[in-house]
Amino acid sequence: MRIYETSGEKSTLIGIPDNIIAKSSETSIKSPESNLAVAAPSTQPLTIELALAETIKQGYLEVRRVGTGEVVTEIEIISPINKNTGEGRIKYEKKRQQILSSYTNFVEIDLLPQGNSMITLNQNIEHDYCILVSPSNQRPQAYLYTFKIQDMIPVFTLPLLPEDSEIILDLQSILHQVYDQGRYDLIIDYQQKIIPALSKTDTIWAENILNKQGLR
Question: pTM of the entire structure?
């Protein structure tokens, strides 16, 4: 698990609330222990909020060799903080490059349609999501699966050691299984607007599915 601290753009002052401490009337206050008159301070402080560093924890999966504990394959699922500029992306890019420069197989799953993609393509391929599969023995070549929201998630082979049996990953089936076992149909409020907003065509497609399932 990667752990680091980050803070927002307003690192020292978030803002001044609407309700500030009101100024006291400029009257004299007498000390009960003396006859001296003490003038009330002419300026009262404002109540503000300071930006504190936020601890970010990001999990990932590792396939390790039995006996030696050697990392064979690393699987990363991209989070929003990886796709936006800032400390999160810097940390991830550094680790990503270390993996790609090693003998570890690498799988990167990006199911976020927004943000700055980790992959730069020379050709213009329209897609919403992508999965990168990088066997260490084939670098710099790698496999990139691109797909759109209305497509099924592609099935792919998980890269392991040459002597290992082939393992096929079907993320679509795994996603359906987790959804059913977690009873997310009872947790998710499907009456809310879809965020981020979809295109007109994708919105109609999603609305039809929700209507058929009785969720709208």
Answer: 0.73
